[in-house]
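To whoever is on call:

I kicked off a structure prediction for a single chain this morning and the downstream step that reads the tokens threw a length-mismatch warning. I double-checked the sequence; it's 79 residues and nothing unusual in it as far as I can see. Pasting both halves so you can look.
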Amino acid sequence: MTNYALRVPESLFAYARKVAEEEQVSMNQFFVMAIAEKVSALKTETYFRERQARGELDASDSWLNASPDVEPMKGDELI
């Protein structure tokens, strides 16, 4: 495990402390979870951008055109 000295503005630290207390976790655990959530969000964004780059609009159009032309099931209607 690695240690890292972190400088945090007082107002943000006070809010983080309050949230950590409400969640009943340590400040260390709160910061680790916050960093993990941000890393996960960035990785997810990258994943979907890569998927988008590989996508083929023509292929999706032909797939949609092959779908049957029927009324939606009850509960699936557009509102």
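Update from on-call: the warning came from a stale cache, not from the record. Cleared it. Sanity check on the structure: The chain has a mean pLDDT of 93.
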